[in-house]
UniProtKB/TrEMBL annotation:
Binding residue positions for pyridoxal 5'-phosphate: G104, S105, D228, S292, S293
Pathway: Cofactor biosynthesis; biotin biosynthesis; 7,8-diaminononanoate from 8-amino-7-oxononanoate (SAM route): step 1/1
Protein name: Adenosylmethionine-8-amino-7-oxononanoate aminotransferase
Reactions it catalyzes: (8S)-8-amino-7-oxononanoate + S-adenosyl-L-methionine = S-adenosyl-4-methylsulfanyl-2-oxobutanoate + (7R,8S)-7,8-diammoniononanoate
Compartment(s) of residence: Cytoplasm
Keywords: Aminotransferase, Biotin biosynthesis, Cytoplasm, Pyridoxal phosphate, S-adenosyl-L-methionine, Transferase
Residues where N6-(pyridoxal phosphate)lysine is found: K257
Role description: Catalyzes the transfer of the alpha-amino group from S-adenosyl-L-methionine (SAM) to 7-keto-8-aminopelargonic acid (KAPA) to form 7,8-diaminopelargonic acid (DAPA). It is the only aminotransferase known to utilize SAM as an amino donor.
Subunit structure: Homodimer.
Pfam families: Aminotran_3 (PF00202)
GO molecular function: adenosylmethionine-8-amino-7-oxononanoate transaminase activity; dethiobiotin synthase activity; pyridoxal phosphate binding
Length: 414
């Protein structure tokens, strides 16, 4: 039987097996045929506390009994109001306004539109966006424009807008900082970065000192600083936000993946008052022209509220610290001649399997994915980069099994 479903980032012509998942629990995906998969990548980085956290599931059920989607222009509802208030409490105080949307890409699109709207409404139109080499901000045309160009967006390149790209920081990052200084002299609208770690670009890590310096340069030149914490938010790097480790507060912050604990889609773009005030006026032409049909879905907002309660009432940061320690021990023990560039930030580890060209399409990535799947592990290497980003609740035995399989892959495949 062939399925009519067209899957994301999947080459259907290769007829790779697509397991049918029937149930989830904690860090485990249970397939309909009885197989069990350890979710070593948090189902593409969304699941934080674990699948089906009881409080989040209960909040969804309770809210579903009261209200489904309602229009969010000119109307409001309690889950959205309470979640916004809760976000303002837990996030840096300067980020005083919350705009809802429904995916990470959309939260970034909103951030870029806010930045351009800010400059236009101040009577000083600016359009250029500064980005970092190897970054990833989503798969819509706007966010692809901000991200690294490659085979995955080759068909669309004629439509992508021009950006100024900074080299990825190495060493003390001076070349990056110098390039940012130069770019800022051209009066761009904003710099957008993934703080401390570039995810889809290959789990590339840079230091808090460099992030702090980039923020300072933007402030000096009056260039808006946008932090895309869609992946890094909600504790992945060891702190609630990665920006915290650099002591910086962005002008605009994008959050999605872990916002509902990974249970249902929701995103927010949080902004400083100056950005909101630039759009507030008695002139309707200055309003913020953006909406999605499902803006601030009440059921998703209720899940987000439950996530905030979990952060407030449960020892989430202790779990993150514990997982980070276990990750560090496992990574250190993975002393193998074919495993190079072992690196870690908080709960995320990454490494390259040597002996293969780092090519996303033709490298050993797909072969590795099948190898891990056969061992009951959901890992999805990017080319020859293998990374481990599990839900915070993963059992020690399951984590050990992941690293044993990576060592076996290095022996057998690399
Ligand atoms: C996943 C991701 C996005 C896009 O989020 P979607 O919900 O997949 O649209 C944007 N930025 C970063 C840093 C991400 O990791």
């Amino acid at each position: 039987m062939t399925s009519p479903v067209w899957h994301p980032f999947t080459q259907h012509g290769l007829n790779e097996e697509i397991p049918l998942i029937a149930r989830t629990e904690g860090a485990i995906l249970h397939a309909a045929d009885g197989r069990r998969f350890v979710d070593a990548i948090s189902s593409w980085w969304v699941t934080t506390h674990g699948h089906r956290h009881p409080r989040i599931m209960a909040a969804i059920a309770d809210q579903a009994a009261k209200m489904d989607q309602i229009i969010f222009a000119g109307f409001t509802h309690e889950p959205a109001e309470r979640l916004a208030a809760g976000l303002i409490e837990i996030m840096p105080a300067e980020l005083a306004h919350v705009f809802y949307s429904d995916s990470g890409s959309t939260s970034v699109e909103v951030a870029i539109k806010m930045a351009l709207g800010y400059w236009l409404n101040r009577g000083e139109p600016r359009h250029r966006i500064v980005v970092m080499e190897h970054s990833y901000h989503g798969d819509t045309v706007g966010t692809m424009s901000l991200g690294e160009r490659g085979v995955y967006n080759r068909a669309y390149q004629p439509l992508l807008f021009d950006v100024s790209a900074l080299p990825f920081p190495t060493g003390d990052g001076q070349a990056t900082l110098d390039a940012l200084e130069a770019a800022c002299r051209e009066k761009p609208a904003a710099l957008i970065v993934e703080p401390l770690i570039l995810g889809a670009g290959g789990m590339l890590i840079y230091t808090p000192a460099i992030l702090a310096e980039m923020r300072a340069i933007c402030a000096r030149h009056d260039v808006l600083f946008i932090a895309d914490e869609v992946m890094t938010g909600w504790g992945r790097t060891g702190t609630l936000l990665a920006c915290e480790q650099a002591g910086v507060v962005p002008d605009i912050l994008c959050l999605s993946k872990g916002l509902t604990g990974g249970a249902v889609p929701l995103a927010v773009t949080m902004a400083r008052s100056e950005i909101f005030e630039a759009h507030r006026s008695d002139d309707r032409a200055k309003m913020f022209f953006h909406s999605s049909s499902y803006t601030a879905n009440p059921i998703a907002c209720a899940a987000g509220l439950a996530n905030l309660e979990i952060w407030r009432d449960e020892p989430v940061l202790d779990r993150i610290a514990d997982l980070s320690t276990r990750q560090a021990a496992n990574l250190a023990a993975l002393d193998h001649p074919k495993i190079v560039n072992r690196r870690q930030i908080g709960t995320i580890t990454a490494m390259e399997l040597a002996g293969d060209a780092p090519d996303y399409l033709d490298g050993i990535g797909p072969k590795l994915g099948a190898f891990f799947r056969a061992r009951g592990l959901l890992l999805r290497p990017m080319g020859n980069t293998v990374y481990v980003m599990p839900p915070y609740c993963i059992e020690p035995d399951d984590l050990d099994a992941i690293y044993a399989a990576i060592a076996a892959a290095a022996d057998e495949i690399a």
